[in-house]
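Anyone have tokens for Beta-1,3-glucan-binding protein-like? Sequence:
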Amino acid sequence: MKLYLFITLFLTATISQSDNAKLKQDTHKDYTLIFEDDFSVLNFSKWQHEITMDGGGNREFEYYTNNRSNSFVRDGVLYLKPTFTSDIIGLRAVEKGGTMDIWGADPGTYCTSQKSDGCFKQSDGVNIINPITSARIRTTNSFSFKYGRIEVRAMLPEGDWIWPGIWLRPIHNEYGNWPASGEIDIVESRGNSPSYPPGGYNKFGTTLHWGPFPGNDPWSKSHAVWTASTEKDLIENFHTYGFIWNETYMGSYIDDEKNVVLSLPIDMPFWDLGGWYKNPNLVNPWIGGGKNAPFDKEFYMLLNVAVGGACEYFPDGNGKPWTNKDKLAQKQFWDSRDSWHDSWLGDNTAMRIDWVKVWGKK
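Reply: yep, here.
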């Protein structure tokens, strides 16, 4: 999930003949299956849970945990579902006088990020404990790949301020910290209604992140949005979200390769695409890499459902009950829950994943 430092721009994705030609040159027959999960069970040898309250780099409002209320399999479908933390520790503990210590003592319970007090928090009536509990799973310790095709068959969640993600991150950060080593956001969406001006559950976006340092990430050059033909299609039906990645092309599609979302031929180095060659004072972190650096290294998979955040994915205004610059944004969100709670309807708040498949080049 990207670290937002700019106002989100939504570009209309179009399908051109050249886009389709690119995809036709790179079809399933060129690949061999290297990873598959049909979620007959929640396989802990394939997926590891993140356990942290660090806010995901965006000051998000969820606490990621390993709990079957938030990540579970039912009828061959994986559910990643946000719930209220008060359901676990009580309302008073969330708001005042509570302590959340998640350092852990056994494998599978260790806190995975202590950034931003991610492993220990206390509420005092002003600062509150993360009011939402959710799930983020990844293949950091089990699977990574470089180049190929990934498909995830999923149904997106509904509910104000819910933020699902299907994405890839570098396994070793060989070019440096984010965004220098890259990030591939295959699917991001908002659970708000389609009337929400920045975009609701009738849209999803694909974005690449790359840049020499935070604050210099020209993601809008590698970003596109798909709008569903009917408003509730993405939250009522399963769709196949695909991404093709090789040395000369990166792009996403929905259901069929002909339905191109993002199409990015690698015609020049990303350093040149970003325009940094004009500044002699900047150091190119990708010297020695391929033309497609930083996207020439191995990446791992992540699936998650975040909620809110003090970032521009949810710009201020438009009915948002908190402001990004406020240090108490999380408390503002929680105190105004009467304004958004009715939009959270049972399992509709979950991202549901039917299967995940990855193919590598033969």
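The radius of gyration is 20 Å.
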